[in-house]
Amino acid sequence: MKPVPAKVSVFRKILRGTGFFPFIVKRVLTSILLIFGMTFIAFSITQLVPGDPVAANLGQSAYSDPEIVAAFEKEFGLDQPVPVQYLRYIQKLSQGNLGISLSSKRPVNEDLKEYFPATLEIALVAVVIAMILGLLLGTISAITRDRLPDQIIRVVSLTGVSMPTFWTALVFFYVFFFLLGWSPGTGRLDPGAEPPPQVTGMFTIDALINGDFATFRQAFSYLLLPAIVLAIYALGVLTRFTRASVLEILGNDYVRTARAKGLPEFTVIRRHVLRPALLAIITVAGVAFASLMAGSVLVENVFSWPGLGQYAYRAAVGLDLPGIMGVSMVVATVYITMNLIVDILYRVIDPQLRKAEQ
Amino acid sequence: MKLTFKRVMGIVFSFALVSTVAVSGPVSAAAKTLTVETVFQLTSTDPARSFEQTGNMINRALYETLLTYKGGDAATPVPGVASKWSVNANATEFTFTINPKAKFSDGTKVTSADVVFSLNRLKNVKGNPSSLMNGITVSAPDAGTVVLTTANPTPQVLAIVTSPALGILNSKVVKANGGTDAADAKDTDKALDFLKTQSAGSGPYILKSFNLTTEVVLVKNTKYWGTAAGYDQIVVRNVPVNVQRLNAIKGTSSIAVDLSPDQAEGLGSKVYVVEGKASNVFFLYLSQNKDFSAATAFTSNAKCVEAARYAINYNKIVRYAGRGAVQAPGIIPSFFSGALKAKDAIKQDTARAKTAFDACGIKDTPVSIGFWGDGGAVNGLSFASLTALVDEDLRAVGFKTKLAGAPIAVSLPLYRENKEEMGLWLWGPDWPDSTNYTESFSPGTKVGLRMGWKAGSDSVIEELRARASTETNTKKRAALFREWQIEMNKRSPLIPLVQPAAIVVSNKSVVGTSDHPIWKVNLAEVRPAK
Question: Does residue A103 belong to any structural domain of this protein?
Answer without folding.
Answer: no
